[in-house]
Structure formats: structure tokens, C-alpha cells
Specification:
The protein is α+β, with helices and mostly antiparallel strands. The chain contains three helices and 15 strands.
């Protein structure tokens, strides 16, 4: 049987936000345990006597082991469910709710002002809002989508993923399409440690700024998801 202490320690490491709740449950179980008295044969329940001067033993109840076993099983199920969901829950997807002017000749990080979800505090709308920052080490998939508005000139339209502000670790490239938008999606895998961060960049070489469009659900969108 899994001990309550082991379960609480596991939650303290894996999900501190749940710890207070499970400490309360543990204390309740402890009070329940103390309400039973063991004699030579079996547990019996103590209840106040009718006069209020002391306690009397009721008929024996062989339920204490079953109660504690059920509680421990439920603790284990909750713990396992949380651990199974832990990797899945470490994810974020952010987007920009406006067009973004990309200057010529520079791989420019796109700022993101809204979040579709962020389960691991990877993104901050107010500070360094171009970044998704890793809070738990592991293997991540990172990607994004952009749509360049039609523009003449130049040879390249690029969407990229930049690692820690310096290293480009993924690209999707196209040339201009006469009179048409250019859709680009990029995705890559990276082994991360706490504090690593990623940015979605856009590049074009027309000689002047052109816009990345605001398209609901597609442009500009940026995401990261911990796989393991």
C-alpha cells in the first residue's frame, strides 16, 4: 500500500499547488485513524456516552483497514493522473491580434499580445512578449505560423524559430508570390533546460517593410509543448 507521506512528498515535488489540499486530506485521515481504538482482536469505535462523562465502545466495526485502503488507492489514482497529465499540461500557444510590420533584411522576433492558453507560465504579455520561456526541462516541440501580405520585390519570405536570442533552429522559406499572400509554418524539436527561451521570427528582403497579416487562428501564432 502507498503511504500518505510518500504521496504528499510526490505532490510537493510534482505539483506544489495541490499540496495544501492533500495535506488537509491527510490530516482528516489522521483524525479518522485516531477515532479508532485497537484491542486484542479488532478495531472499535469510541463515541461519547449519553451522560457526556466519557466514552463508550460501540459494536466492533471491521472497516478501518478498508477505509484507509480506499483512501490510499484514491490518492494513488489522483497522483498517477496528475503525473500522466504533467507533460501534456506544459504547453502554451500565443498570438498577435494585429498586423505586424516586418522590416527588410532582419530576422525580426514577433511580439505576442494574447494567449490562447499557457499552462506553465511560458509567456508574459507585458515583459519580453516575443518569448516562450521554458519552466521545466525536457524535450519540446516548438512552432509557429505567419502569413506575409502580398508585396513585390525581394527573393525571400522566411519564418524561423530562434533559440535564446541567437541560434536559429528552424526555418520555412518561400519566394514572393505575384499578387498573393505567402503562408509559412515552421516546427522543430529541442531539448531544453529551465530558462531557455524561443522566439518566432519573420524575414523579408523587399527593401522596405511589409506586413505579417492578422488572420484568426493562423497568423501570427506561436506555440510550444513539452513532450517528455
Amino acid at each position: 500500500m502507498i503511504s500518505i507521506e510518500a504521496l504528499l512528498h510526490d505532490f510537493e515535488e510534482k505539483d506544489p499547488k495541490k499540496l495544501v489540499f492533500f495535506q488537509e486530506i491527510s490530516r482528516a485521515l489522521d483524525r479518522l485513524n485516531r477515532s479508532f481504538v485497537m484491542d486484542d482482536k479488532e478495531p472499535r469505535v469510541l463515541t461519547p456516552d449519553r451522560k457526556g462523562y466519557g466514552y463508550q465502545r460501540n459494536k466492533s466495526l471491521n472497516i478501518l483497514p478498508e477505509i484507509l485502503q480506499v483512501k490510499a488507492i484514491r490518492f494513488a489514482e489522483d497522483r498517477n493522473n496528475l503525473l500522466l497529465r504533467s507533460a501534456d499540461s506544459m504547453a502554451a500557444r500565443v498570438y498577435k491580434n494585429a498586423v505586424f510590420a516586418v522590416p527588410t533584411g532582419v530576422h525580426t522576433p514577433i511580439p505576442f499580445d494574447l494567449e490562447r492558453f499557457d499552462t506553465d507560465d511560458m509567456h508574459d504579455i507585458a515583459v519580453n512578449n516575443t518569448r516562450l520561456t521554458i519552466q521545466h526541462e525536457g524535450l519540446y516541440v516548438i512552432g509557429g505560423h505567419v502569413q506575409f501580405e502580398p508585396a513585390a520585390g525581394g527573393a525571400l519570405r522566411i519564418a524561423g524559430v530562434k533559440f535564446n536570442g541567437a541560434l536559429s533552429i528552424g526555418f520555412q522559406t518561400s519566394g514572393p508570390l505575384a499578387g498573393a499572400v505567402v503562408f509559412l509554418s515552421v516546427a522543430t524539436l529541442w531539448q531544453c533546460v529551465i530558462g531557455d527561451y524561443f522566439e518566432l521570427t519573420a524575414f523579408q528582403d523587399t527593401g522596405g517593410p511589409i506586413n505579417v497579416a492578422n488572420v484568426q487562428g493562423y497568423s501570427s501564432e506561436f506555440w510550444a509543448h513539452r513532450l517528455s
